[in-house]
Design a protein that fits this description.
The chain has 252 residues and is α+β, with helices and mostly antiparallel strands. It is 31% helix and 30% strand. It is globular and about 50 Å long.
Length: 252
């Protein structure tokens, strides 16, 4: 069989173009898409955005607090509202006006005010909230805004034609901490159960330190193919955040 140089060139050129196209489809460069004095929104994939608000604390200063927006087919779900109603109102407006999306649900991942602080703003907009049953119990005890709908173990919520999964794996940062997962993009919102790389242990006032590592081990086992992991505070990353958190609380 005779192969001329022209055919080889065409084959190699086509291969390079295909490879570049595939690489461009695969990779997404994160970008900041909104910033004000109280709220930052960063797009980390085609359909997900981290929102970051701030909480002033005595022990740790002005702490950045992460939440996640998942969007599909003009619908959205928010994991953890911003830390106060003003920031939550700002976030809701941005989602409705910039993403042109209807917010189907807001999901607080535990009962602390960096997860429940802005919840009332969602209720005022008739946006339903869902949380683990223990979160509702603890919110009532602490006189915080109480999520409207409860679940035990896990709940699947639809966004467009995709699913999100919110699940309780065990105690750690609190008795009620859950994580949210977006299977179609393999993105995990760990909330305050997970730590950014090189972080300290943080606030332990409501923690079950002895159970923490085992809980994260179960998360890691459930989602072995996770690509992006978002902690409650600090920089997002990949599965290394799971390993780091496990090791951080391994020996007590």
């Amino acid at each position: 069989m005779k192969i001329n140089n022209k055919n080889i060139f065409i084959f190699l050129f086509s291969f390079v173009i295909f490879s570049c196209h595939s690489q461009n489809k695969k990779d997404f460069v994160a970008k900041e898409v909104y910033k004000s004095g109280s709220l930052i929104i960063t797009q980390i994939s085609k359909n997900t955005f981290i929102h970051t608000s701030f909480k002033q604390t005595n022990d740790f200063g002005n702490v950045p607090c992460n939440g996640l927006i998942v969007k599909n087919k003009n619908e959205a779900i928010v994991f953890d509202p911003p830390t106060n109603d003003k920031g939550a109102e700002e976030l809701i407006q941005w989602i409705e006006e910039r993403l042109h999306a209807k917010i189907n649900a807001v999901v607080p991942t535990h009962f602390h005010d960096d997860s429940l602080g802005g919840l009332q703003a969602f209720h005022n907009k008739k946006i339903p909230s869902y949380s683990y049953s223990k979160t509702i119990e603890l919110a009532k005890q602490n006189h915080f805004t109480v999520p409207q709908n409860s679940f035990d173990d896990f709940i699947i919520l639809k966004v467009g034609n995709k699913e999100t999964v919110t699940k309780f794996f065990g105690e750690g940062h609190t008795k009620d901490n859950v994580v949210g997962y977006f299977p179609s993009e393999k993105i995990l919102f760990g909330g305050c159960l997970l730590k950014e790389l090189e972080a300290g242990k943080g606030y332990l006032g409501d923690a079950n330190v002895s159970a923490w590592s085992n809980t994260v081990e179960r998360v890691k086992k459930e989602y072995p193919d996770v690509k992006i992991v978002i902690p409650g505070h600090g920089e997002y990353g990949d599965g290394k955040l799971l390993d780091y958190t496990i090791q951080l609380f391994k020996e007590q």
